[in-house]
Specification:
The chain has about 475 residues and is α/β, with parallel strands linked by helices. It contains 17 helices and 10 strands. The strands form 2 sheets. It has a 7-stranded mixed sheet with strand order 4-5-6-7-8-9-10, covered by helices on one side. Strands 1-2-3 form a 3-stranded antiparallel sheet. Helix 14 packs across helix 16. The C terminus is likely disordered.
């Protein structure tokens, strides 16, 4: 039996020592699992509502007893007796029970903790690892390491909130971790040699007394070189500006220094930074409602740099769809706590992928986190910081109208980004054919489509042999997912 027997909520504490919500779900087969809702230091105004008691006499107003009561009294009664395997149903009940646009009634911290705990229960009940139970896309992303903190994450004069590194030349995940480790240790030595403190900020990066963004960037480049790695090749730099914290009432930003300047001036500043330093990703370069500046910066530097929407999109399908339409960014940050349920998190991810518009920079939970393992599961299942739309769900969704049910499972199992060539061919899209006709594998792809198409639409053809399928796949698919 996988039916829910009871649901229990309780107040626990996150990595900052602040109160947060934990949910525990018990099944009729005696399986149980817990999940903890995370919380961020800098949050967007359009994120799902984090419900706190606001009683100054209890944890300075940060206690979450109301959200816990919502789990124990309202949510529990609705979920008892339901199958935990149906995650969509569980999450839709949570959404309907709340009844608001942003989880303002039950609290996103309550709904998310329950949603994640249910997912973990389902995995245990199915005797699967959590990431396997979430999907069939088993790849690891390029990790980003937050190594210098500023803004709301540190007590220094840096306005940019996060300075991160990404190991682009890593051969596998362990190699990526090792390269970052070496750079971090050399950065620590550099800080000490410059008589700077090596205390850390909220997210574990160093938080020395640095006055300018350029000084932080110089330290990182020097640390990369001391590690015998090449800046821009082996290791690149990624920024989280968190511009929501840096805008005034006139729409000006204090990104360069404490002085405010126009959005256009800051676009010029970003251009200067990426020309002088190996910066390949900028998160939240402008405020969440400054759509025009987002569009400008993406148009001007987005070809070579990831422009990541965190506060802009807040894992919300409506805002994401607007951003895709207006070309406001080329990447999205995915966080379950921004939307309040696992199902809605995955929907946001799917929209970003299936629109064939955005790369996905996945940071599954926020900095005020716990030992919650769902972060690792989501990174396995949907995380691909660099890989541009190269996973099977895109191919399966695009090809489904053109292939028979008997062969669709092969697309789901083996599909990779270049599968959209097949969709263009089978759909008779001449413009797409012209666009991709110079691709080095185009002719082989067309030949394969012709061969595959005949079999897939033959009602007497019961299966497609992998011996037929794989030789073409190996030749056509030059890009493989980043795996360990």
């Amino acid at each position: 039996m996988t039916k829910i027997k009871s649901v229990k909520g309780r107040q626990v504490f996150d990595s900052r020592g602040n109160p947060t919500v934990e949910a525990e779900i018990f099944l009729e087969n005696n399986i149980s699992a817990t999940a903890i809702s995370p919380s961020g230091a800098s949050t967007g105004a359009f994120e799902a509502h984090e419900l706190r008691d606001k009683n100054k006499d209890k944890f300075l107003g940060k206690s979450v007893n109301i959200a816990v009561d919502n789990i124990n009294k309202k949510i529990s009664n609705k979920l008892i007796g339901l199958e935990c395997d149906d995650q969509n149903n569980i999450d839709n009940i949570l959404i309907d029970l709340d009844g608001s646009e942003n989880k303002a009634n039950l609290g996103a911290n309550a709904t998310l903790a329950v949603s994640l705990a249910n997912s973990k229960c389902a995995a245990l009940s199915n005797k699967k690892s959590l990431f396997k139970n979430l999907g069939n896309n088993f790849s690891l992303p390029f990790p980003l390491m937050n190594i210098i903190n500023g803004g709301a994450h540190a007590d220094n004069d840096l306005n940019i909130q996060e300075f991160m590194i990404r190991p682009d030349s890593a051969k596998n995940f362990m190699d990526a971790i090792e390269k970052c480790f070496i750079v971090i240790q050399n950065l620590k030595k550099l800080l000490k040699s410059n008589k700077m403190l090596t205390n850390v900020g909220d997210e574990g990066g160093f938080a020395p007394s640095i006055n300018t963004n350029e000084q932080a960037l110089e330290l990182i480049v020097n640390a990369i070189e001391k590690s015998k790695l090449k800046p821009g090749k082996d290791i690149v730099i990624c920024l989280d500006v968190a511009a929501n914290e840096l805008i005034n009432g006139k729409g000006e930003y204090s990104i360069q220094s404490k002085n405010f300047s126009s959005a256009d001036a800051n676009i010029d500043y970003y251009k200067k930074l990426i020309s002088n330093y190996p910066i390949k990703s900028i998160e939240d370069p402008f405020a969440e409602e400054d759509w025009e500046s987002w569009k400008k910066v993406t148009n001007e530097i987005g070809k070579n740099v990831q422009i990541v929407g965190d506060d802009l999109f807040v894992t919300n399908v409506k805002r994401l769809s607007k951003g895709i339409k207006e070309k406001s960014a080329n990447s999205i940050l995915v966080k379950p706590n921004q939307i309040g349920t696992l199902t809605e998190t995955l929907e946001g991810y799917q929209v970003s992928r299936l629109e064939h518009s955005l790369q996905t920079a996945t940071r599954a939970l926020k900095d005020g986190a716990s030992d919650e393992m769902i972060v690792a599961a989501l990174l396995h299942d949907i995380g691909d910081e660099l890989a541009p739309l190269n996973h099977s769900e895109y191919a399966a969704a695009v090809l489904k109208p053109y292939v028979s049910e008997k062969t669709h499972w092969i697309v789901e199992k083996h599909g990779i980004f270049q599968m959209y060539y097949y969709a263009h061919y089978l759909g008779g899209n001449k413009n797409a054919r012209d666009k991709y006709k110079d691709h080095k594998y185009f002719n082989d792809t067309v030949k394969f489509c012709e061969k595959w198409d005949q079999k897939s639409f033959d009602p007497n053809y019961k299966s497609l042999s992998l011996k037929d399928f794989e030789p073409y796949v190996r030749k056509i698919f030059s890009r493989k997912p980043y795996t360990n």
